[in-house]
Please model this.
Amino acid sequence: MRIKATKMDGCGNSFLVVDEMKTPLAGFDRSLISNALATQHETDGILYVDRLHGVPTMKIFDSDGTEETMCGNGLRCATRYLRDTHISSDMFSIVTGDGRKEVRVIDDLTEVNLGEARDYRQITQQLHFVFTGVPHVVVIGSELDVETARIFGRSLREEKSLCELVGYPEGVNVDFIWRNQGGISVCTYEVGVEDVTQSCGTGSAASAYVATKVFGMKLPLITNSLGGSLEITESNGHLSIRGQTRYQGKVIGFVNDIYPKPTIPIYYRHHQHCW
Model:
């Protein structure tokens, strides 16, 4: 099967956008498709955009084929794509696995409202947990290199007692943060990608939220990652992330042995969340 997609990135976080309004995939195994496309095109995740009862939707699958509830930079890329391709307004909403999100395009910037930070807790002096659409453990420390973040990120992501403590035995994302002159620096090890990524939108939001608790910093706050910067803002208790997105071009992926299987939207599934 040949699948057309649009490659995009948000703050260095790369995605393939598959438009199901043009290429319907209902009944097919998106997990298998996602893993194949990510392998062929070296991308962090696959975004499937569609409409449900007239409302835009987004599903996000990691490069290993795991479906996630949310992805901040992925949502920003989906926002830009949907506005440029299907929607005339600069402000609209998108249904995700973490609920309906308000989004907007402001000139060359894309902003998405992730909702409230949930389940915040301090685990140790250095470790903090918060849910911003997906679970994040934020590690307070000093500047570190990518290889060190990779080693320690993988160790914490796989630490069963930690993951069970925060209610996510399947694993958590790990954000290493430290203060810099303009805000905070963030280096994220992502579940599903199983590596340090150039940026993580939900991780940047989680890190900024923890920074307000630990460092006494105020929002808006600039987070600096390997792939660039995001502005984290707060309004009525809701966190938003704002930054640039860009198109990298059209691609074609080839997937064999796609066996049909019944699919249930992730936002209808029962989750063992802590809230």
